[in-house]
Model the fold of this input.
Amino acid sequence: MLPAADWQKLWNGKDLTGWKQVGWGKFVIEDGTLKTTGGMGLLYFENEAFENATVRVVFKTPTEKGANSGLYIRMPEKPRDAWYGVHNGYEVQIDATGDDWHCTGALYSLSKVTARNMKPVGEWNTMEVELKGDVTRVKLNGKRVNEFRGDQTVPERKMWFEPVRGPRARKGYIGIQNHGARDTVYFKEISVKR
Done:
């Protein structure tokens, strides 16, 4: 039997080495966490694109409302602006208050959750997103809440801020989202397992 693959920490818990910010929002380091602040933006890991891997983020929200963020996956190029991840990758939503298409674990407006499994405000949540071929599987706190195949039928795009429809790259960069000036989410781990 082969040993299980180890998790590789992409964020070192101290500074932004290996990460780059685009957009007008930013992340600040506060008590060993990354904290969203300042408006729409995207912090991405610039050293490597990933394919057939599982990405893990550990996050918490200090309030129920005003706690909107996301994990960007499958971005084919290094992002040039804050909206690049929305329209060229997939956003795995972080938001306790959205409907099933726009809540934690949903691929924003493309694939709704089959269950809600977010912990209460102030508690740490673990989201694992498996990328395997064109399939994306999302686990939230140990429970599968979404499975999406890149060629499956999706709802019609209704608003400009919803993702452009169409297939995404199998290999891509990952990042996390600053959403709005009043939205706050804390991240204490961003890791990957190949």
Remarks:
- Residues 38 and 163 are 22 Å apart (CA to CA).
